[in-house]
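Subgroup meeting minutes
Present: P.N., E.W., G.H.
Scribe: E.W.

1. P.N. recapped why we're keeping a running log of single-chain structure predictions: easier to compare across weeks, and new members can see raw inputs and outputs side by side.
2. G.H. added today's entry (296 aa).
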Amino acid sequence: MIPAIARDRPIPMSRTVRKARGTAFILLAILATSLGMVALAALLLDVLRDGIGVLSLEFINSFPHYQAEKAGAKSALAGTLWVMSLTAVFAMVAGVGAAIYLEEFAVRNWFTRIVEININNLAGVPSVVYGLLGLAIFVYWMGLGRSVLAGALTLALLILPIIVVAAREGLRSVPPTIREAAMALGSTRWQAVRFQVLPAAMPTILTGFILALARAVGETAPLIAIGAFTTVLFVPTTPTDSFTVLPVQIYSWISKPLPEFRENAAAGIIVLLVVLMLMNAVAITLRNIYSRRSRW
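Output recorded in log:
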């Protein structure tokens, strides 16, 4: 008679079954990745097919026009560079500063727990909500109007939770012994964080920063909510000027009935992808520099 304990014990899988299940899981993962890559490649090929014939220096150096063959992306490209530069500065300073305070200096109590919960929840809020918040605070309450500065601050709010979470993870990954060794040699808490902890955490922080900027550069709803113009016939020169950005200009072109404007939209998408890749290249270069320094 088999004891009750022996009857209830699960029968272990054989090595062959475990290996077969592992192989099946790997194949499913490869299939899922391949489907996503194929869909992305199809979209890129379709955009390149429609827009590569329109893309030229004349297109980049021309302003929007009611005739498709004369329309260009000069003002939208300049507005995108303005907005993303200011967004990167505002979000990086505020996000890393908040992460340093919460991770290194804040007392663990009910207030910090509420702040942490809200930061994690804000990362999932729809982007149009940030646009309405920016409209109420930056455009009307602070009186910034529909300016580059208002758009940059709105997008900075949008990506701020992502940067805070990534920065805190980077600070947590630094061993506590580095802080203790720095303070044992006479450094203050801030000096230990500034000169030892923060440089070691920068690769992780910059990785989150890259992902956050990649989200911000393609956002349209928040900027439309604060009143970004679909057509601007000048290049913004100060943060208080009116503006448009490439996603808004692409949205304006794609909404027009003429097929020629859809080719302009495809060319605008190519320009936007190039801008995104250049921004990511700069951030990845900085991340690699900090990674090499941390290994030294």
